[in-house]
Amino acid sequence: MIVLSVLVAVIFVLFGAAKLFALAPMRERAAHAGFSVTAYRGIGALEIAGAAGLLLGLAVPVLGTLAGAGLLLLLAGALVTHVRNRDGLRDLVPALVCAALVAGYLVALGVSP
């Protein structure tokens, strides 16, 4: 459980930080998805908050459950955005893998996603 929590948290901190710092690839993805850089930074902040919630969930499981649910909602939005933009499987895979990891985290907590 600890390993999965840390793994998922690290992934979301990395993706979230890239969005917050508006790195060039993230600015390009934001434009492609139809988001402003400011909106994409907001998504990055939510990803980092979700990662923090997963780690806090190690001590307070309800926080981990809420953070996991929030991350799943963000990922659902990402998938909808990719589908609307007719992105290929290569662009969908990161969101799908992250969703599977978050779902696995929630299952390990004893929550049915």
Number of strands: 0
Helix residue percentage: over 70%
First-last Cα distance? 16 Å
The poorly predicted ranges are none
Q: Helix count, per DSSP?
A: 5
SS strand fraction: under 5%
Q: Average the pLDDT over all residues and give the rounded result.
A: 95
Write the H/E string, N to C.
Answer: HHHHH
Shape: globular
- Oligomeric state of this protein: single chain
Structural class: mainly alpha
List the helices and strands and how they pair.
Elements: H1 2-20, H2 24-33, H3 37-56, H4 61-84, H5 89-109
Helix pairs in contact: 1-3, 1-5, 3-4, 4-5
Please explain how this structure is put together.
- The protein is mostly helical and 113 residues long.
- The protein has helices at 2-20, 24-33, 37-56, 61-84, 89-109.
- Helix 1 runs antiparallel to helix 3, helix 1 (2-20) crosses helix 5 (89-109) and helix 3 runs antiparallel to helix 4.
- The longest helix has 24 residues, at 61-84.
Q: Which short descriptors sum up this protein?
A:
113 residues; single chain; 5 helices; mainly alpha
Give a quick precis of the structure.
The chain is 83% helix and 0% strand. It is an all-alpha fold.
